[in-house]
Amino acid sequence: MQPEIRKFVTYDEEVLIEGFKVAASPWRMFAVAAVVKNPWSGRYVADLTPEIRAYAPVLGSELTRRMLALAGGGDYIEAYGKAAVVGLDGEVEHASGLIHTLRFGNAYRQAVGAKSYLAFTNTRGPANAAIMVPLMDKNDAGRRSHYLTLQFAIQDAPRPDEIVIVLGAATSGRPHHRIGDRYQDLKDLGHDLDNPAAL
């Protein structure tokens, strides 16, 4: 059993000026999407496990391979995330099923040397629906400079019987970040950052 992939779509954005100020280095966000036929479309299926076990490793591996090629290697990726959008004849559970499994996410996490979890969205929509991929620092979930959202759309996907599966990344945080991180907030609130039990 293999996923029926209609096409791959690549999104790549390089920002040179942000907030009316030139960035010290370009701010790049990019993604790779696979448009996949939904094997459960149009019906209720109690056990999604067989397709998840068959599809997730294939999609995770291939999308990861393409992301690394775009980035030039896992070391260039600082923030990362994932998303899925199921077509109108599917359930949000179908979108969730294909991305919320170690069989899908581990390939990407290991390839970029990540310690934090993959931020995610899973939604339902028609063709040309907004695909929003939340990103966070791959090693530090509290680093607010890397709280990002990459957004794009695919004109003809998802069709009602499809799911769009996406990996996203950024090579840096926002160019002029200046809101601090959550650790400063915790310090301001009197938490002892050297004592994990106090957090």
Describe the model.
The chain is α+β, with helices and mostly antiparallel strands and 199 residues long. It has a single domain, classed as 2-Layer Sandwich (60s Ribosomal Protein L30, Chain: A). The protein has helices at 49-71, 92-99, 102-112, 182-188, and strands spanning 5-18, 21-37, 79-86, 119-124, 131-137, 148-152, 162-170. Strands 1, 2, 3, 4, 5, 6 and 7 form a 7-stranded mixed sheet that branches. Helix 1 packs parallel to helix 3 (102-112). The longest helix has 23 residues, at 49-71. The termini are far apart.
Largest sheet: 7 strands, mixed
CATH class: Alpha Beta
**Cα radius of gyration in angstroms:** 18 Å
What structural class results from the helix and strand content?
A: alpha+beta
Count of discrete structural domains: 1
Strand content: 25-35%
Distance between the amino and carboxyl termini: 46 Å
Number of H- or I-type helical stretches: 4
Report the average pLDDT across residues.
94
The CATH topology label is 60s Ribosomal Protein L30, Chain: A
Features:
alpha+beta, seven-stranded mixed sheet, 4 helices, 7 strands
